[in-house]
Amino acid sequence: xxxxxxxxxxxxxxxxxxxxxxxxxxxxxxxxxxxxxxxxxxxxxxxxxxxxxxxxxxxxxxxxxxxxxxxxxxxxxxxxxxxxxxxxxxxxxxxxxxxxxxxxxxxxxxxxxxxxxxxxxxxxxxxxxxxxxxxxxxxxxxxxxxxxxxxxxxxxxxxxxxxxxxxxxxxxxxxxxxxxxxxxxxxxxxxxxxxxxxxxxxxxxxxxxxxxxxxxxxxxxxxxxxxxxxxxxxxxxxxxxxxxxxxxxxxxxxxxxxxxxxxxxxxxxxxxxxxxxxxxxxxxxxxxxxxxxxxxxxxxxxxxxxxxxxxxxxxxxxxxxxxxxxxxxxxxxxxxxxxxxxxxxxxxxxxxxxxxxxxxxxxxxxxxxxxxxxxxxxxxxxxxxxxxxxxxxxxxxxxxxxxxxxxxxxxxxxxxx
Amino acid sequence: xxxxxxxxxxxxxxxxxxxxxxxxxxxxxxxxxxxxxxxxxxxxxxxxxxxxxxxxxxxxxxxxxxxxxxxxxxxxxxxxxxxxxxxxxxxxxxxxxxxxxxxxxxxxxxxxxxxxxxxxxxxxxxxxxxxxxxxxxxxxxxxxxxxxxxxxxxxxxxxxxxxxxxxxxxxxxxxxxxxxxxxxxxxxxxxxxxxxxxxxxxxxxxxxxxxxxxxxxxxxxxxxxxxxxxxxxxxxxxxxxxxxxxxxxxxxxxxxxxxxxxxxxxxxxxxxxxxxxxxxxxxxxxxxxxxxxxxxxxxxxxxxxxxxxxxxxxxx
Amino acid sequence: xxxxxxxxxxxxxxxxxxxxxxxxxxxxxxxxxxxxxxxxxxxxxxxxxxxxxxxxxxxxxxxxxxxxxxxxxxxxxxxxxxxxxxxxxxxxxxxxxxxxxxxxxxxxxxxxxxxxxxxxxxxxxxxxxxxxxxxxxxxxxxxxxxxxxxxxxxxxxxxxxxxxxxxxxxxxxxxxxxxxxxxxxxxxxxxxxxxxxxxxxxxxxxxxxxxxxxxxxxxxxxxxxxxxxxxxxxxxxxxxxxxxxxxxxxxxxxxxxxxxx
Lengths: 417, 316, 261
Known about the structure:
The complex is a heterotrimer. Chain A is mostly helical. Chain A has helices at 8-20, 30-55, 64-82, 92-111, 116-134, 138-141, 165-187, 190-200, 202-207, 212-238, 248-261, 266-286, 290-304, 308-320, 325-358, 379-416, and strands at residues 147-148, 240-241, 365-368, 371-374. A two-stranded antiparallel ribbon of chain A has the order 1-2. A two-stranded antiparallel sheet of chain A has the order 3-4. Chain A is globular and about 65 Å long. A two-stranded antiparallel ribbon of chain B has the order 1-2. In chain B, α1 packs antiparallel against α10 and α2 (40-58) runs antiparallel to α3. By secondary structure, chain C is an alpha/beta fold.
């Protein structure tokens, strides 16, 4: 399990990492620090979702409701602070947490009576309900333009005015650290252990004297509180909250983050948050097909890598200690060029198709993978399809070698276990 | 006044039937395989786009047959090459797989046809008035929609209850290993079920593409409502889905026609409005504006009053 | 004045579990047709019968998984028919399952600990760390020793062998303070050797408690039980000491005559 994480050394290391990140070359710009801030917010959100899905087995399609409502509560508080309330900015996210908790309790009482598939559908419905309502109540939700506030027009706190992105980052990082410790601690309490039990076998939980509905309700409310906290951080970071903060897209995004990162591991949530945030920010600059790639990656992970990135990392770490690691590395090296070729071929086809259908005004000429091509002619299509086919065929031949190497590794691991 | 009522009823019934066409296919797949197919509305959208494309090549009536068949093939492929690997990972994994698939199908549609809505006009062969009421003509394509969905209901009922295949599939749902031991090819059955469900969604798409705007956001707009329908009707119940679809269809259509708000109602009673801008705002919302909320309010109401839905049978 | 503050503990009822006229029908199909049984405190009671007789259904009725169509079920004098399983469990009844029903992604230790939390008063506590609770840890370790899985303490329950999982199954059931324990085919699927171990285990952990057991293995039944009830088609056809059951003609005809233990 996550026994390693209980050692204080890990927490100290994590704190040090958080402190050092904005000074890493490449991340020192405002853009880099803004990216880190976004990752931090996503990480808090993802941790709250991991509590829900990974620890308690509750699949929610509407978790953004609590994120968004928390964000709105926080931004309204921030407006009040702009108007003179003497609340320091670092405490504003608590309003988000409180709102998240409150709404979590109210909606949770309704939604956690059932688990499994029905629960998932109910969260979808509640999410749509809140999203639709957000368009109808402009005084709280601000209509199309959302609600704005300023994080600098506030009483200074320890001399900081939170004008710079660096200060905002540290605020977010601090709250991320606190949230991580609290959630981790929560999982070690009796209720936390029961969450895991309810995830594994809700029926048996009843026979040891606990009502699984009550356990789910508590987990839901706590998760909603931390989602609201993330929303509050979002409000401070962007100084604006709009209706998409409660929307289905954001709910879908956190689900992707947690699942791709690794739903069974605490660390997976943070990994997934960082990875998906980075993809969202950078990939969308390069290609208009990034959502397609993301969807395909997600489907691939669900079907073939259910442990997510964290699970993948752990498997490889344990394989490192075996003697078969050399064989695995060799097979990977062999497969690498063909995997790249397959991906490049597929990506080319996708990009060309997207260009033709979504940006016809940009013309037929494109440069992909440093090769200029005229998409009006058939050659790019044929070439890309050919590369894809050859790459896929080669991978199919190499696959048995990879599988064999892993089998040897697995034998060694089991022999030592 | 009577005009509004009659037209709202007719249009509401048509919308309700559209919802039923979608939710029945979804219920079919869910009842028989336990999989909640998030990509169902996406296949519906695919059906609309495909029928438009095929109509342009070979005309509407052939498209009415070919597009659903293609959607059925797509469904078969999804199950055979994708979902089949995911079944052993549990229901959550299945839902997530179809969730990702919904995104992917949506993007593929954009890749093929662009981000803008397409001009999916009612083809000339069915663009005539079926009958006239109160001086306004009622389009034939809506009558066609009604006929198709009634046919769908009949087909499903027969398939479920009367055919041998239907019985086998029902058995395979709860006891797949036993059914397999009896010699039936369970994976093949699942492919068949998924194909039929997807074909039904595609068929709904052919007709629904005229009633709604054919654009890449179609699936996301209609999908959640279909899920509300099956929860309100009761998971796994086709009659329940029918009742819930009609209920939501008619009520929502009626609501759109009502340009009054609770504030108007209070004023009519001679009562003043309470102070507080948020409350005032809520009361001033016209029913026509609040119409999109109605399915979800119904969902919440149903959860409080009768959590297993109107005619719920299957429980996960 | 301590003696006035400490209320005297009421003497536990002499009859631990009593079923009166319990009926259960699924739709139009009656499964349990009027079962009446009184099991005194501390007795080891076995329920046997052919497949389909309704033994598991009876357990489900008593433990609250399903509610009887009519009839009364009393646990130490208190009516529990139709109550939710978790409420019945809190009153001091626990059960194991025929199909292993453990927590596969928790370790063996944590599995057992789950059975300990409520009886030791943890409730829905989210403020204290579970592994700091001394009494919880002690009890869990003790049970772990009793079911002889102490060396598998940190293994995930899902990867245990079948016999180990059956032992864990029993372990979760007995971990708390349950005074009445229902074991549903505890030795199903076990080899001769494993069965002997299981019988020894059951005998030791149910010392001083009331045990109701459904079993098919006649060796286990006759070795452990103080009294045996025979359930056929939802009715008790005989309920007596093992020796007399063995000689009962009706029972022989209905059941023992065909099976050879």
